Amino acid sequence: MKNTALNDTHTALGAKMVPFAGFNMPVQYEGVNAEHETVRSTVGVFDVSHMGEFLISGPNALDLIQKVSANDASTLTIGRAQYSYLPNDKGGIVDDLIIYKLKETQYLLVVNASNIEKDWNWISQHNSMQAEMRNLSEDYSLLAIQGPKAVEAMQSLTSVDLSAIKFYHFEVADFAGIENVIISATGYTGSGGFEIYCKNTEVKQIWDKVFEAGAAFGIKPIGLAARDTLRLEMGYCLYGNDINDTTSPIEAGLGWVTKFTKDFINADAIKKSKEDGVKNKLVAFELVDKGIPRHDYPIVDADGNQIGIVTSGTMSPSTKKAIGLGYVPKDKSTVDSEIYVQVRNKQLKAKVVKLPFYKA
Amino acid sequence: MNIPAELKYTKDHEWIKIDGDVATVGITAFAQNELGDIVYVEIETEGETLDQEEVFGSVEAVKTVSDLFMPVSGEVIEFNEALESAPETVNSDPYGDGWMVKIKLSNLAEVEALLSADDYKNLIG
């Protein structure tokens, strides 16, 4: 089991630590509902240093990225980031990721912790153009500073005008007394804020200064449990839950980051499935009856026949409604469609709704 | 961790308070802490007679769901209706207002085999 560079800090804060993707990670500090509310109303900080970072460089860097990812990275300019995914050659998804254009011939790929080795091998295997690849995952830390007060609370830590960094843009600048930190206006909560990439040796200083600067705003540490409820209220996919090696990117609703203006792995088959139409769709739903949907619970029709599966579910801390994502046949995927979730021995009525579940 | 000496316990992290042939049952401070924020307690077995270790309900936390097991055999004669609107009481007062059901015992001999506070303390380490 690996530790992030902040392991002692989390333990000292009384965090409940759990194994996640090979790391000891803080799942909660004071409680998931309170932490969720902190991010929705003010500002909270997540240590998500388990995430993986690959640096792809050289004259062929873009060629490699274009081949392995579905979105069009040629549209990126320096200082911009892009959400994308790595399709496999069997119709499924290797991982989803964010691609940062750092320099004219240098990109940073940020991947899920559970997939670091798989992604590295997959990308390496397709690197026939011999782009330079470096796995920085072990040396870099990532803090997500999220919430409506993030800009105001963090401004004193940097010479960059934080309010001027647009969504999915970033600056490489000074932050909390450290030079060359990536300050990225991205996140997985829907409440705004930043993600800060720095070296493991720098992260403790940054963490401490972030909490000093945020004290007046009620800044708090936030665990993985609230990270999950926050992302689910937005309907953001979680790899391993909502998408995996066998899910179709079109069924998963990733058509918007699938660009057929360029060639990439499995592009022809994905294009065909988009044109022919897919059987199922990943939808958002709310329970009408009382109960809570969970990952892998069956979705059934009024007669109890299984028609789909729940991929994520929880009680929404913001709306107090039981919410979920799941795959259903296309004819049940329109808003207000009535579906049922099999919760142990009961069929609970649910209805398909529009995302997000909560407007942050 | 709070483990009141006057209660009995099960390996499934329930506490039980015996008063004649009626027992009050809830989950321990350790259990509520492991589950995290509790958002729903579902008990639909009122009036049913169940065996020891049978499921009498479930408790849903934000992140997980857990079954509730009968610490002893008996009839579920009452459930704590206050939990319907305030399930978080199980977190804040697990041995008091967060109680879950009352059971009319059908086999008093089963009480002997329940864990003492010391036994339970050793179990959770």
TrEMBL record, chain A:
Protein name: Aminomethyltransferase
InterPro entries per record: GcvT (IPR006223), GcvT/YgfZ/DmdA (IPR028896), GcvT/YgfZ_C (IPR029043), GcvT_bac (IPR022903), GcvT_C (IPR013977), GCVT_N (IPR006222), TrmE/GcvT-like (IPR027266)
Pfam families according to UniProt: GCV_T, GCV_T_C
Swiss-Prot/TrEMBL catalytic activity: N(6)-[(R)-S(8)-aminomethyldihydrolipoyl]-L-lysyl-[protein] + (6S)-5,6,7,8-tetrahydrofolate = N(6)-[(R)-dihydrolipoyl]-L-lysyl-[protein] + (6R)-5,10-methylene-5,6,7,8-tetrahydrofolate + NH4(+)
Domain of life: Bacteria
Subunit relationships: The glycine cleavage system is composed of four proteins: P, T, L and H.
Annotated family: Belongs to the GcvT family.
Documented EC number(s): 2.1.2.10
One GO CC annotation: glycine cleavage complex
Organism: Putridiphycobacter roseus
UniProt lineage: Bacteria, Pseudomonadati, Bacteroidota, Flavobacteriia, Flavobacteriales
Function: The glycine cleavage system catalyzes the degradation of glycine.
SUPFAM superfamilies: Aminomethyltransferase beta-barrel domain, Folate-binding domain
Record has Transferase as a keyword: yes
Domain Aminomethyltransferase C-terminal: start-end pairs: 281-359
TrEMBL record, chain B:
Residues where N6-lipoyllysine is found: 63
SUPFAM superfamilies named in the record: Single hybrid motif (SSF51230)
Source superkingdom: Bacteria
GO cellular component, one term: glycine cleavage complex
Pfam families: GCV_H
UniProt keyword annotations, A-Z: Lipoyl
Keyword Secreted in annotation: no
Keyword Isomerase: no
Residue ranges of every copy of the Lipoyl-binding domain listed in the record: 22-104
Cofactor(s), by name: (R)-lipoate
InterPro entries reported for this sequence: 2-oxoA_DH_lipoyl-BS (IPR003016), Biotin_lipoyl (IPR000089), GCV_H (IPR002930), GCV_H/Fam206 (IPR033753), GCV_H_sub (IPR017453), Single_hybrid_motif (IPR011053)
Cofactor-binding details, from the entry: Binds 1 lipoyl cofactor covalently.
Gene Ontology terms describing biological process: glycine decarboxylation via glycine cleavage system; protein lipoylation
PANTHER family membership: GLYCINE CLEAVAGE SYSTEM H PROTEIN, GLYCINE CLEAVAGE SYSTEM H PROTEIN-RELATED
Function, as annotated: The glycine cleavage system catalyzes the degradation of glycine. The H protein shuttles the methylamine group of glycine from the P protein to the T protein.
Subunit structure: The glycine cleavage system is composed of four proteins: P, T, L and H.
Similarity comment text for this entry: Belongs to the GcvH family.
Protein name as annotated: Glycine cleavage system H protein
Record organism: Putridiphycobacter roseus
